[in-house]
Specification:
Blueprint lengths: L1 H35 L1 H12 E6 L6 E2 L5 E13 L7 H12 L3 H8 L6 E7 L1 H10 L4 E11 L6 H4 L1 E2 L5 E3 H5 L1 H5 L3 E6 L12 E4 L6 E4 L3 H18 L3 E8 L4 E8 L12 H4 L3 H4 L9 H10 L8 E4 L2 E4 L2 E4 L7 E4 H7 L2 H11 L1 H10 L17 E2 L7 H8 L4 E2 L2 H12 L3 E3 L4 E5 L5 E4 L4 E4 L3 H17 L13 E10 L5 E14 L6 E8 L8 H4 L1 H14 L24 E3 L8 H10 L3 E5 L7 E3 L5 E3 L3 E5 L13 E3 L8 H11 L2 E6 L2 E6 L5 E3 L3 E7 L6
Parallel strand pairs: 2-10, 27-30, 32-35
Antiparallel strand pairs: 1-8, 2-3, 3-4, 3-5, 6-7, 8-9, 10-20, 11-12, 11-25, 13-16, 14-15, 17-18, 19-22, 20-21, 23-24, 24-25, 26-29, 28-30, 31-34, 33-35
Helix pairs in contact: 3-4, 3-5, 9-20, 12-14, 12-15, 12-18, 13-18, 14-16
Length: about 700
């Protein structure tokens, strides 16, 4: 009996000890969970209970140098789903899909995914958003996002760039300054139970997004409009493969305007070919600069005292280097002339001699000092570095051709940056597009000041070079660039286009002009580059120089630069004879194809500007019959009431169809809302009613077609 009691006591003791041990373990475990891992587990619990709805930050605006808003962001709702909250996915998909213009099966696939959050469609318009909200479908929510809006469509799109669906910068300044513009996204936090149901009176937390900073560019909206206007004229007249105009402040390196053709609307960038928007020709296109590069040759030779303006040269029409004769552009040559006249005449043999006298080592020193063969660092993605033959491989023939702008390829921004060094007293300024970055209250966060890269030539050499270039405009090949009331300097360029397989492409040229004004105190520098102009004219002095004249005149007036009186004017211009302006009657060009209208206006000595886009002229100012002086600009309205979409019964003028094929005549009449009644085959010989007759839309025009004669 006593043995049994001792055994029971032992068992109770062991049971007590075991219970105590277990209790200690539980206390330790509880302490571990509470004090060691408490914060971690608390956070995990919060994460499990919370649902996040992202809130996109509003992207900062892009402004021009005067504070004009070029790019902004507008609000747009994005539609999302919380799949676990949608009770009847089939019914919900059937209601949502037609409003969003989506396939029902696609919507159902999205809203039945095993995830906590799914986008259905991003950035829908206001009406669509309201229709969906009226459905009040549980599990369908809306997040306010922003959509990029480019306020002036085709104004400087290659500089501004554009954004993608998630508002991320893809091109231009949008990409280069994405970090500064995009801001910090926010979120909405909502507490749910274990089954994913929203808890009444639960925690709702809104973490607001932080709007991105504003970007203030060096661009001037008004000057950019001037540039776009000139580019439109170039395309209208010469239909080039490509055109670039850059306007800069030569003293600071600020880009005041930069435009390209072809162009695009960044609001609809997906609707144009990638080749139009994925590269900016102003910083990417490598081309042989031709005679505009003679500015560099001149400055280098003067700085090294290789030549003086009064030194004499003789041009027999060619210069022989090794076994090759390089000919002057003027048949028979310029004969005896000073270096000043060599520059005025853009004489190739004269520049070849100067380049060879300068020598390879010294010539390359200035090629590199002016910034060729390296990116300028303008701050846009995709900048090319140009093409320069390695110095060790350069021959005398290379030096000779480089001296006149061949055997070297530059980008437009490189060349104008180098010209700026001549205009501003010899300093190479780094080109830049951004003046400052500001917060939403207008406080400057970062300022971009003019940056001197290096002193390339002395101030005396720069002034002397500028004087020689002024003579090019007054007396030489650049006379069409003359700017009335201002001293302008510059150089024309006409270069052949390098073929893809080497050599030069037949009949393809690059016409250009690089210059600055006023010479005594330069406010602007301008480069015009027109690649492969059509229509016969391709010389820089004929195609590009007049653009400089018009653009510089308007820009200097806009900037308030006072005109100078009694300045000398060019004389004996071989390309543009100053004719007495006479009174002429404005012809009727309404309802004519644009090409034909332009041809008629040119024939009577009138200029023209287009308004809108299209190939037909629907209106004109002044009206036909008005008496004006030759040189007056006629504004052609290409939008009008809509051509063939006009109302039946509206009066239109019957065009002249003579010489057109049946198809051409049919297309033209259709565009005017008229009907073609053809007789015969071949080309239009006669028509009824006669050209110019007013006829209600919808009425037929009888046209007699005849086969062309053998001699035609």
């Amino acid at each position: 009996m006593r043995t049994t009691n001792i055994l029971i006591r032992r068992r109770i003791t062991w049971l007590f000890l075991l219970g105590s041990a277990l209790l200690c373990m539980l206390i330790l475990r509880l302490a571990w969970i509470q004090f060691v891992r408490g914060d971690e587990l608390r956070q995990q619990g919060i994460i499990n209970r919370m649902r996040d709805v992202p809130v996109e930050a509003k992207r900062g605006s892009i402004l021009d140098r005067n504070g004009n808003e070029l790019v902004t962001s507008v609000s747009a709702d994005s539609v999302y789903a919380i799949p676990s909250h949608i009770e009847n996915p089939d019914e919900a998909a059937a209601k949502i899909a037609p409003i969003l213009g989506m396939d029902v099966a696609k919507v159902k696939q999205i809203i039945t995914k095993k995830s906590r959050f799914e986008w259905i469609k991003r950035k829908v318009d206001f009406e669509t958003s309201q229709k969906l909200k009226e459905l009040k479908i549980a599990g369908i929510g809306f997040a306010e996002e922003s959509r990029r809006y480019y306020k002036q469509e085709t104004l400087a799109p290659h500089i501004l760039g554009f954004t993608g669906t998630d508002n991320q910068g893809l091109m231009g300044m949008e990409a280069a300054y994405d970090e500064e513009l995009k801001g910090i996204p926010g979120r909405i936090v909502i507490e749910h139970d274990a089954a994913g149901r929203e808890i009444p009176q639960a925690l709702h937390q809104y973490i607001p997004p932080v709007q991105g900073h504003n970007l203030v560019l060096t661009l001037d909206q008004t000057i950019q409009h001037f540039v776009e206007r000139e580019l439109d004229k170039i395309v209208s007249v010469y239909k080039p493969k490509m055109a670039v105009i850059i306007v800069m402040d030569p003293k600071t390196g600020e880009v005041l305007a930069l435009g390209n053709r072809p162009t695009f609307n960044p609001n609809k960038w997906r609707e144009v070919p990638q080749s139009v928007w994925d590269r900016d020709p102003a910083i990417w296109y490598n081309y042989e600069p031709g005679s505009t590069f003679k500015i560099i040759t001149t400055a280098a030779a003067l700085e090294e005292n290789v030549v003086k303006p009064s030194d004499r040269f003789y041009d027999p029409g060619y210069y022989q280097v090794a076994d090759r004769k390089i000919r002057c552009w003027k048949a028979g040559g310029h004969g005896s002339q000073s270096f000043e006249e060599v520059v005025q005449n853009s004489c190739n043999p004269g520049f070849i001699q100067v380049g060879l006298n300068l020598g390879k080592e010294r010539f390359y020193k200035y090629i590199q000092a002016f910034g060729f063969g390296q990116p300028t660092g303008i701050g846009l993605p995709g900048e090319a570095r140009g093409i320069v033959i390695p110095e060790k491989d350069a021959t005398n023939l290379n030096i000779a051709t480089m001296a006149m702008g061949q055997s070297i390829a530059v980008t437009p921004i490189q060349l104008l940056t180098a010209v700026n060094a001549v205009a501003n007293g010899g300093m190479l300024m780094k080109p830049h597009l951004v003046k400052s970055i500001e917060d939403q209250k207008g406080h400057v966060i970062k300022e971009f000041k003019p940056e001197v890269v290096r002193q390339v030539i002395s101030k005396e050499t720069a002034n002397l070079t500028a004087k020689l270039l002024e003579n090019v405009v007054l007396k030489g090949s650049g006379r069409n660039a003359y700017v009335d009331g201002y001293r302008a300097a510059g150089k024309t360029g006409t270069a052949q286009v390098v073929a893809e397989r080497g050599g030069y492409a037949s009949g393809k040229y690059v016409a250009s002009f690089a210059g600055f004004a006023p010479v005594n105190d330069p406010k602007i520098s301008i480069l015009i580059m027109i690649a492969e102009p059509q229509g016969g004219s391709y010389y820089g002095g004929m195609v590009a120089a007049p653009v400089f004249s018009s653009l510089a005149q308007d820009t200097l007036h806009y900037l308030g630069v006072p005109e100078q009186k009694d300045l000398p004017k060019p004389k004996d211009n071989p390309w543009e004879v100053e004719e007495e302006r006479i009174e002429v009657a404005v012809p009727n060009v309404v309802n004519l194809p644009l090409d034909e209208a332009q041809k008629l206006l040119r024939e009577v000595g009138l200029a023209f500007e287009t308004r809108g886009q299209g190939n037909m002229v629907y209106g004109q100012i002044p009206e036909s019959g008005a008496l004006v002086l030759t040189g007056t600009t006629v504004i052609l309205d290409l939008n009008g009431a809509g051509g063939g979409n006009g109302q039946t019964g509206q009066q239109v003028s019957v065009p002249n169809l003579k010489g057109m094929s049946i198809r051409e005549a049919g297309n033209l009449l259709e565009s005017l809302g008229l009907k073609l009644e053809p007789e015969g085959t071949g080309l239009a010989e006669s028509q009824s009613p006669a050209p110019g007759t007013k006829l209600p839309r919808g009425r037929p025009v009888k046209v007699q077609f005849k086969p062309p004669s053998d001699g035609s």
